[in-house]
Each structure stands twice: as C-alpha cells, then as structure tokens.
Specification:
493 residues; alpha+beta; Jelly Rolls; 7-stranded antiparallel sheet; 17% strand; flat; membrane; transmembrane helix; transmembrane
Length: 493
C-alpha cells in the first residue's frame, strides 16, 4: 500500500506520526474519517481501498444473516404457538363429543325404563276385573245420552223459530204484493207523463234542426224567418202554458180524490177501532195493519209531491232553453296560418255571461250573431262559459258530448272572486306530430282543463264569442305549457 499525503501547516500531528513509523494508526483513523465523511489531518490518496469494501460487504452479510436467523426464530415460535392452539382445540372437541355420547346413553336408558313401566301398567290394567270396565262403559253411555238430549232440545227450539219466521215471511210477502200493485199504478202515471214530455222534446229538437238548416241556407232569409219563428214560439208557449194549466188542474183533481179516499179510509179505520174497543175484540195485529196502511198512504202522498217537484224542474229547464235560443252572442274570427310552432290565443270575457273560444274547420261558416244553443252546436270544439266546459259535436253523432273540466270545482271557486273578467287561453301546439290543443284559465295560465284535443287538422279557424264586451289577442312562438294534461281526445269532426 502506497500513501501520498499533501501536508499543510495544520497537519503537523499527522506528519509526526508518519515520520515516527506509525502509519497504520494514521491509515485507520483516515478510513474512519472517510466513512463518516470527514477529513483527518489533511487529504490522502489511499491506494488499495478494495480491502475496506470487502470489510463493509462482510459486515452487511453478517447483519443479513443475523436478521434471517432472528426471522426464522420468530417464524418457528409462531408455528409452535399455532400448533399448541390447534391441539388445545382438538382436545376440547373430543371432550364435547364424549359428553354428548354420555348424554345419549343416559337418555336411551331413561326411555327403556319408561317403556318397561308403561308395559307393566298395561298388564295391570288388563289383569283388572271386568266389573270396573262395565262401570266405565255405563258412565260413558250416560254422558252420550245427555249430549243427545241436549241436541234434541236445540233442534226443537230451532224448529219453533223456523215456523215463527215462516209466518213473518208470509206477512211480509202479502205487504210487498200490495206495495207492488201501488207502485205499478204510479209507474203507469209516470210513463204517461214521460211520453208526453218526450213528444214535446222531439218537437223542440225538430224545430231547432229546422232553424239551423235555415241559417245555413241564407242569412237574410234567416232574419226574416226569425220574426215569424218568434211569433210561432210565442203561440206555442201559450199552447204549452194552456196544456200545463190543464195538467195542473188534472193533478189537483187527482190529489183531491186521493186525499178524499185517504180521509174516508182513515175514518172507516177509526170507526172500526172504536167499535172493536167497545166489544173487546181488537188485537195487536189489527193495530199493526192499520199503521202499515197509514204509512203506505203517506208514501203515496210523498210520491205525488216528488212528481210535482220534477215537473217544476222541467218547467224551469224549458224556460232556460228558450232563453238560450235567442241569438245575442257576437262572434269574431282570429288570424291563423299553419306553421310548425306554438300559438297562444287569449280572450278576456265577462265570466257571468255566455261566451267562449271555438276551434272549427276552415270551411265552416260562422254568423256574426248566434245563440247559446248554436254556439255549443258548432261542429268542432267549444270552450264555453259560464260553466267552464268543453263541448264537442261530431258529424256521425247528432248530439252534444259534454266533457267537464278536470279542475271544474277549483276553477269555479277561484274565478268567483271580485274580478268581473275571466281570461280563457288556447294553446295550439303544432311542433308535435299529434297537433295538440290545450285550454287554460287565468292571466298566467295557472289553471288548466284536464282534457286536451289531438289530431287537429291544418285548415282550422279560431273563433271568439261573447254575449258582452270582448278582447282577444294572438301570439306566436310561445313556450309549451300543460305537460300535466295527459288525457287527449281526438278532434274527429
């Protein structure tokens, strides 16, 4: 090994050691300083560092061997502990098996002892005297006889109840037959009245159809014919009033006759009761029959009164129909051109008067003045006031299909406020393939009608109608509203 040292003024101690022949001490300290990253007595160029690296490798190997030995020892200790635990558990399991086997053997012995005791008891019973058997049989026979007696008593009681119920049913059947006969008489009277009412309705329908035909033929002739028809109507009204008066008189006579008959029957019944009381032959059954007859007579009177009430209601309806036949509603057609967009039509109307919005075909002729009956008879869809309803009329069916709004109760409660006006909205959605129409109420369209119209034709008219003042607006390219409306009825007009 050759070492060449560059000695500075600060390394006198190292140089002295080197001169004195103690190079080995200097080399060891220089190696230690190098390992620690320090300098010792100056800088040295040490040749033969391979020996130091070998020493370092040997030290590292020794450490690895020590670690491996420690790891093996710990691993062996863990294995030994696991083996001990497994042996302990196996011993416990064996002990449990032995206990279970002992219990099973004990139970088998107990079962055998019980079987032997039972066999001994059976032998003793078989060896017992026949006199005891006879006594037991007698006791059993007595019990059975008592049960049979109780059952026979119950059967007799049920037979008596059945006979009583039969008598009651016979009496009820007789009373029912009497009531049926009376009901049949009342039905005949009501049928006759209904037939007369149907005839009057048929006449009215024929007259209304004739009026519609005449209005379509010529508008000028219609004005002239209206005056004549009004006169005819007045004459017919007079005739109807005469008929009604005659019917009233007849009804009054029938009432008088029925009341007189009832009074006579009551008087006869009262006389019979007084005579029977004197003689002592009056019974509870007769009292019941008298009461039933009185109740039947009262029911007759009630039925007659109900018939009169129905007639008054029909009379009021006829008066309303006559008012609805007067042409006092003005019409206005709004601009429309088919486009694939969403249209909105708004009409501001007096909510207490007749009016509405209608969708009809483009070739339909709408007069400037129409009646309420003509409005709801338009071939198309009519969103009408004052009841907030949708009216639809088809070509095939000569009648009006009325469809209430799904929010009719809410709309009536909300619109009946201090405000005199109501806002009716119509949305035509032609962006969809089905071409849907939906109806709304209010400025902000906050209320909707639960029924919509689908499959609208491209050639249509939008007509606004009102019995009083009217304002109408139209706008295009609006936002879609009313996704809640899922029930859609086809136009089919």
């Amino acid at each position: 090994m050759f070492i060449y040292a560059f000695i500075s003024t600060q390394t006198y101690y190292v140089s002295i050691l080197a001169i004195l022949g103690m190079l080995q001490v200097v080399i060891d300290k220089a190696r230690e300083a190098k390992r620690e990253g320090k300098e010792y007595g100056g800088s040295f160029m040490i040749f033969g560092e391979a020996e130091t690296e070998q020493e370092n490798n040997e030290i590292a190997l020794r450490r690895k061997v020590e670690l491996m030995s420690k790891y093996k020892q710990s691993f062996e200790e863990v294995e030994n502990q696991q083996k001990e635990q497994i042996e302990i558990e196996n011993q416990k399991h064996r002990e449990r098996k032995n206990k279970n086997l002992r219990q099973i053997n004990q139970l088998n012995q107990e079962i055998k002892t019980q079987e032997q005791s039972e066999e001994n008891a059976i032998q003793k019973l078989s060896e017992s005297s026949p006199e005891q058997k006879i006594i037991l049989d007698r006791e059993k026979d007595q019990e059975i006889g008592e049960k049979l007696r109780n059952m026979s008593d119950q059967v007799n009681e049920t037979d008596k109840l059945v006979e009583i119920r039969r008598h009651e049913l016979d009496n009820l059947e007789q009373e029912a037959q009497q009531q049926r006969n009376e009901i049949q008489g009342l039905r005949k009277l009501s049928n006759n009245q209904q037939q007369s009412n149907k005839r009057d309705e048929q006449k009215d329908q024929q007259e209304s159809d004739e009026e519609i035909i005449s209005s379509r033929i010529n508008k000028k002739e219609k004005l002239k014919e209206n005056d004549k028809e009004k006169q005819r109507k007045k004459e017919k009204e007079k005739e109807k009033e005469k008929k009604k008066q005659n019917e009233k008189e007849k009804e009054k006579e029938i009432k008088r006759e029925t009341e007189e008959e009832i009074k006579r029957k009551n008087e006869n019944i009262i006389q019979k009761i007084t005579i029977d009381k004197k003689e002592g032959s009056f019974e509870d059954k007769q009292n019941q029959e008298v009461k039933q007859e009185i109740l039947i007579q009262k029911e007759k009177i009630k039925k007659v009164q109900e018939i009169e009430i129905d007639k008054e209601k029909q009379r009021k309806k006829e008066i309303g129909i006559d008012n609805n036949s007067i042409s006092n509603i003005t019409t206005r057609t709004l601009p429309y051109e088919f486009q694939t967009t969403i249209f909105k039509y708004l009409a501001v109307l007096d909510k207490q008067r007749n009016g509405g919005i209608a969708i009809v075909r483009g070739n339909e002729e709408i007069p400037q003045m129409i009646s309420f009956n003509e409005m709801i008879n338009l071939k198309g869809i009519v969103f009408a006031l004052p009841y907030v309803q949708i009216w639809k009329r088809t070509d095939n069916i000569e009648r009006i299909i009325e469809q209430q709004s799904s929010t009719s109760h809410d709309t009536q409660s909300k619109t009946q406020d201090l405000d005199k006006w109501i806002h009716l909205n119509l949305q035509l959605d032609f962006e969809t393939e089905e071409r849907i129409a939906k109806f709304f109420i209010g400025k902000d369209m906050n209320e909707f009608v639960g029924v919509g119209i689908k499959k609208l034709p491209k050639d249509i008219k939008v007509v606004v109608m009102s019995q009083g003042p009217l304002k109408a607006y139209m706008s295009e390219k609006q936002n879609r509203r009313g996704d809640e409306i899922t029930e859609l009825v086809p136009f089919s007009v």
